[in-house]
């Protein structure tokens, strides 16, 4: 039997997830596609995984599809002099990602790539998205982003969510992300400030309105 969290265990993010899951379960549709958008370090993966877990606890199957699976390979980024900017909008296969979401919207059987953060590479054919899956949760930086071709995605989501985290908190998380990969404090700070934080600022500056905006400060990365 599923035990509901209580008291301090029921964080702000958990309450957001529960409310969103209840809303999704109350909608009559053969498939709902949920976009979880936000800057790098805002907790999108955590939120998406918790939403999938919550739907599963209510007896509904869902699939999580990360936008990061569409990172261009490092060798191609190097050839295009883009490796230092990895994570920027033009370092993804944006057109391929839009095509995938259109296929998911059409309820086709599709297979999506995932992203291995420790190896810093995409893994092809890692995620099956069957036509009968009632909920597909997509998470990524540029899901609600006012720049072509990313802006084409806005009309494909049934529900869009943005995780809002102040820039100082994002900075701390992004530095910690590099520290967790055994970089020194100085190197981790350089990596975050040279690329990740500018990408976060770009995401925030060109954000399209979402159906829901949640406080993501308690969503851990």
Automatic annotation (TrEMBL):
Domain named Phosphoribulokinase/uridine kinase: residues: 33-166
Keyword Transferase: yes
UniProt-listed Enzyme Commission number(s): 2.7.1.33
Enzyme category, top tier: transferase
InterPro entries found in the cross-reference section: P-loop_NTPase (IPR027417), PRK/URK (IPR006083)
Sorted UniProt keywords: Kinase, Transferase
Domain of life: Bacteria
The name this protein goes by in its record: Pantothenate kinase
Molecular-function GO term, any one: ATP binding
Pfam families named in the record: PRK
Record keyword DNA-binding present: no
